[in-house]
Design brief:
four-stranded antiparallel sheet, cilium, flagellum, FliN, FliN/MopA/SpaO
């Protein structure tokens, strides 16, 4: 029997404890105890980056072999199709760029640098004169 000096909450807690202890089967309790004793912490493989780039957390080596489209743009123009059909060998198409003006260097359509045309071993090339900063690239991307 419960103590008459106990509060209502204490009596309810004692009744619940008694009811729960009566319903527990000794076999189930011992199985639960045995299972709890056999639990051990899981071992996980360390996935931390390794190598020379581990300090920065960025392994650029993963993307070095991805091909990209590099384009050097001398200039642009818009002409009607009837003028394109009239083009022949020796025709001159006027571009919007001025002579001596820096040429745009694009990677996958995004401006990354500007430069000047050079000839090296009878082949055209471009000498980079200005590299677009990462912040400027982000600003230009946000405008599109």
């Amino acid at each position: 029997m419960a103590d008459p000096n106990m509060s209502e909450e204490d009596r309810m807690a004692a009744e619940w404890a008694a009811a729960l202890s009566e319903t527990k089967e000794p076999e189930v309790a011992s199985e639960v105890r045995a299972a709890a004793e056999s639990v051990s912490p899981a071992a996980f493989t360390n996935f931390a980056p390794t190598g020379a780039n581990s300090a920065s957390g960025n392994d650029i080596n993963m993307i070095l072999d991805i091909p990209v489209q590099l384009t050097v743009e001398l200039g642009r123009t818009r002409i009607p199709i009837k003028h394109i059909l009239q083009l022949a060998q020796g025709s001159v198409v006027e571009l919007d760029a001025m002579a001596g003006e820096p040429m745009d260097v694009l990677v996958n359509g995004y401006l990354i640098a500007q430069g000047e045309v050079v000839v090296v071993n009878d082949k055209f090339g471009i000498r980079l004169t200005d590299i677009v900063t990462p912040s400027e690239r982000m600003r230009r991307l946000s405008r599109t």
